[in-house]
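Hello Y.,

Per our agreement to keep a running log of every chain we model this quarter, I'm adding this entry. I've kept the format consistent with earlier entries: sequence first, then predicted structure.
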Amino acid sequence: MDWWPLLWSIIKALLIVVFVLANAFLIWVERKIAGRFQRRLGPMRVGRPHGWAQTFADLIKLLSKEDVVPGTAEKWLFLLAPIVAFLPALLVYMVIPFGPTWVVNDLNIGVIFISAVTSFSVLSFFMSGWGSNNKYSVMGAFRAAAQLMSYEVPLVLSMIAVVMLAGSLSLNDIVKAQSIPFVVLQPLGFLTFFIAAVAELNRTPFDLAEAESELVAGYNTEYSGMRWAFFFLSEYANTVSASAIMATLFFGGWRGFLLPLPPVVWFLIKTYIFVFIIMWVRWTLPRVRIDQLLNLGWKLLLPVALLNIAWTGLLGLVFKI
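Predicted structure for the entry above:
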């Protein structure tokens, strides 16, 4: 029996896990960005050198905190929810190409796979809220689900226009088709995707799924210690994966220009530029209200995404794209 294909698959899976977990350094990065943008002295001075010690102190705190499971909770739902929340961030990288040959599995339905995986996080919110058997957690879970479903529709529709231009659902084929970055041909599609992605990430100004001032932290109210940390780490992992998808669909992915850098370096540069922009938005804009959030998704982004598909189809007919 040839064990090499199985062994190579395990190695690639472990590399993805290591890459996702390595993005925990973004906790430190965001602290420094918040300190610069908002002139907050804490992130700039605490935990020398350069704030690293504070991140390790937080890790020790989370590892040592008591893992509390409410007595009336649905135990298995409560325990599995953080794991289910973290899985989509791992599965997305199964089809994202880091380079021409640096892809775990170049599925010919890669875009559909990503659409299915990214919408899977709704289940984890329901599991955590319902499993907690707490009215505040249930209210937070329903609001999180409403938010995610509202923005999943325009998010997927914005990807359809890219698929129409590339003529393929494979992410590697989409990258290869971008002799001109698709953001030039799809500015509306990119803006729709970016706004919807930030909303799906539960990041400010759309962090209503976890609004401490309104819902006592929302769906994860009853979580503590490392189970809470899994939700927190999932947010950063999903931020990187959303940035990687944007870089792949609209900015040529691993394709470079001007400088002769390796494809994987170009991919990472583009990805982390988007991570920085998402953090920039978080520490600049105020939180919106829930009615503003839903109105933006259903009344603005959805019509814009549909119009963008129609416009892309018209261009294809006229210019034979």
